[in-house]
Amino acid sequence: PEARKLTAFRTPFGMYHFKVMPFGLQGAPATFQRLMDHVLRDVSSFSAAYLDDVVVFSQTWKDHMSHLKQVLACIRAGGMTINPQKCAIAQREVAYLGYIIGFGKIRPQVGKVDAVHKFPVPTTKKKLRSFLGLVGWYRKFIPQFAERSAVLNNLTKGKAPNKIQWTEECSKAFEDLKKAICTDSVLHTPDFEKSFTLQTDASGVGLGAVLLQEFDGDMKPVVFLSRKLLDRETRYSTVEKECLAMKWSIESLRYYLLGQHFFLETDHRALQWLHRMKDANARIAGWYLALQPYNFTVQYKAGKTTIAADCLSRIPEN
């Protein structure tokens, strides 16, 4: 109630303020998200919320009924209500934030995939950015995403004209991204009772990584990562680039990796002895210190066994 006066606005009929949080206030999304995080803090092990979209997940029917009761009790205690017509109860899989989640797997939502498939060839930077934003939401499903989108991303740079010059190379990249999304891309949901394996690699132009876990005797992807090297980073030595790939990927995946032991696989032997290096340069020493909160074992793997990470690192090289 004490914040209501901050929403006051003037009209010809006098001053008014909102009694409940409206759409459109600059700080409303962050404020409401903080509220939901607080309301569900005691049930966060089996529920999650993105603004007003709440999902409850369980392994068994009995657990689900118990979890659902606890979540509803928390929402009631927070002074909020639920619209039953907008609820989906006891689903084997659900559409959530543009994804289909269920059976231990995550895949793109069909409607969103159709939107990508039907997207017309963009003619301006604004339209191209819209397309890249749409496919970028699903980048973790697309191996080598940074490489595949590099040609199109270059067209959106500040000095490029607003009306883009569409080439055959652009058409190939455009169709390739649409095809990559429209195929049955599947990532496995992480099991935090199992250990993770992180494969990293660096090339002359980019960094790549893939987070893996073992399911049914095979290593399955949980997340794909890739990014270009900055201009200054392209001048790093090989060992510096490989160490940067390790630091960047671990920090990018900190919510998966922090607090548990994991294995890091690299095709660069020198990283095996990183913790024993006596004469490491200041840059590498700083990166290594930044990774002290993490518990991991570095394992050397030949490049042919870390193909995914290697490909993800070679952004515009092909």
Automatic annotation (TrEMBL):
Asked if the Swiss-Prot or TrEMBL record annotates the protein with the keyword Transferase, the reply is yes
- InterPro entries in UniProt: DNA/RNA_pol_sf, Retrovirus_Pol_polyprotein, Rev_trsase/Diguanyl_cyclase, RT_dom, RT_RNaseH
GO MF, one term, reads: RNA-directed DNA polymerase activity
Q: Which EC number(s) does the record attach to this protein? A: 3.1.26.4
Which EC main class describes this enzyme? Answer: hydrolase
Q: Which residues form the Reverse transcriptase domain?
A: 1-101
- Listed SUPFAM superfamilies: DNA/RNA polymerases
Q: Which UniProt keywords apply?
A: Endonuclease, Hydrolase, Nuclease, Nucleotidyltransferase, RNA-directed DNA polymerase, Transferase
Family recorded in the similarity comment: Belongs to the beta type-B retroviral polymerase family. HERV class-II K(HML-2) pol subfamily.
How is this protein named in the record?
Answer: ribonuclease H
Q: What is the native source organism of this protein?
A: Poeciliopsis prolifica
Question: Gene name, please?
Answer: POL3
